[in-house]
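Cross-posted from the bioinformatics board.
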Amino acid sequence: MRRIAFLLIVVATVAVVIASTALTAGQADEQAAPAFLTQIPAGYRDWKLISMAHEEGNLHSLGAVLGNDVAIRAYREGTIPFPDGTIIVALHYRNVPSEENNKIFGRAQSFVPGAPTNIQFEVKDSTKYAATGGWGFGHFQNGKPADAAFMKPCFPCHAQEKAHDLVFTRYAP
Amino acid sequence: MRRIAFLLIVVATVAVVIASTALTAGQADEQAAPAFLTQIPAGYRDWKLISMAHEEGNLHSLGAVLGNDVAIRAYREGTIPFPDGTIIVALHYRNVPSEENNKIFGRAQSFVPGAPTNIQFEVKDSTKYAATGGWGFGHFQNGKPADAAFMKPCFPCHAQEKAHDLVFTRYAP
């Protein structure tokens, strides 16, 4: 009987050790997980306008930057750093000439959003994304997130905008 | 007594005639009033994004086009003509290089909204603006409406976009 009890204790201890090891491994996995978004935050297309973004160089991009309510309040009140819960999204499109508008205007002056290129996010969560300045970065093409290698330059580049809490975009009045 | 009563009737009649003439004159004034906006619709900066607008030529303009709920619903459902109550606003800014962004990106590629230039509206009211295709046009600079002469080309130019109910901007997905 004592022998059985001893064996049970051994089995239980082993089970606890295995479970606790598994838990630690799980936590380690989570910590090692890429600090970027893998899912598109819901409802972003209904958010309010922060500003526009027009990139030339190799990009020829025309974009709009929207924010959720936390983001918009922070921008309007000039709150820096942005509070946890802030989400900023940039909707990017090709900057293409509008033949239709140009015909009416009588000259080549009008550019409009062409095909969508990508959607980028910055999500503020100072705990979850502590390793990247409190921001989780996201880049989605056809609804699919970019991989870890693609996302690697996001943080070091945004980190150069430290004075504006790693956010390039200013509010357009 | 009869004489006083008669005089009172005369006075009353004259008063009614004067009042009714004044009313008619007022109505005539209203009908002759320029069919464009003289007041900025409230709350427009909180409306949802329709698209962006980038104009070169002499304009060098970067803009965002927003819509009230009636406008957004019509755009998303593809409702043409737009229903009464639709309001579309274009927020225009100078398209200026961002020295700050370019320094970080290492090349001159980034343009952002500079000084605001004007805010333009299209308000759908098929009764009130029957003479201009059901649309009331608005152009505001520093909060002040443009005058009748300035507004005159709005309708004939927009009328060329008849297939899209006098609205140039398409919805950016």
